[in-house]
Amino acid sequence: MRSADVWASPIGAYLRLRLRLTGRLLREVGAVRLTLLLPFLFMSVGQALAVATVHPRGRWAVPVVVAWLLLSVHRQRSDYRFLATTAPSFRTWLAWEYALLALPVAVVLVAGRAYGPAALLLALAPLVAWAPPSGEDRASRRRWRSPFRSEAFEWVSGMRATKGLWLWPVLVGLAGWQRASPLAPLAALLVWLLVLACYGTAEPVSMLALAARSPKQFLRRRLRLGLSYAAASAAPFWALLVSGPAGWGGALAVAVSWLALVALFVVAKYAFYPNETHFRTTQGLVLSIVLLLLGHPLYPVLLLVAAVGLPWQSRRRLQQFIGYK
Where exactly are the transmembrane stretches of this chain (predicted)? Predict the structure, then answer.
């Protein structure tokens, strides 16, 4: 099928619609945030791909990680049921979309002469379209009892959606297997931090109203719950750092920095509540700054702006929804 025929087909109409929606989301994010976010995002992704491509095993991890990210997004699609009821061939449309999303990564792999991983990525990405959405396994949902308090709904629903409780022992096992290198627990902590993207979902406004406390008290409670679970889940990785070359000093510095990043994720969510696009881009910006600008002269200034500005903005934003001073 020629490219002109593809764009004139129903698949092309769907892809054009997705492009329009993406453009609208970018306009909602705003030019200022995009100017700050996109360079850091491209640098972080590009650096990770460059490192993985030259590594004999890391290059094969790229298609698996990208397919897993696409699967996580696919299972949470809000338009899945609409597409299923209006377009019988919607899975083919989704397969094209996921293949196009994976294409830039495949091009980078080919440029690094990782031909096998590039072919595997282009084979895995379209297959994601045939995975069921997270809402279809309701029977297993009834049997699954969360170890987290219902108030910490991000952990309850997020761990179920991302299969975090299954991933956590795998990360602990891999980090313990490579405990001689401090990079193993650090990489596991980074992956676990990405699992905590469950803080990128906004709860209904009614849940804020039922909290019946001031914005300051509400934020303290959210931070206390989130940081408690985050610390408990990250403790094995810190223990591996203590027993390795990093020692107590290195492990303590990593623990404090990691928990501070989780706290910034939480306050960034409420700084732009309930606009998920805005606070997700802000969370991505914070993560990019922390990972890429460490040691840069502007790093302390940007971190100070985030640490002071986001809590202030979050209390100001919550005041619009919680009527207590």
Answer: 25-45, 57-73, 93-112, 183-202, 223-242, 248-272, 284-308
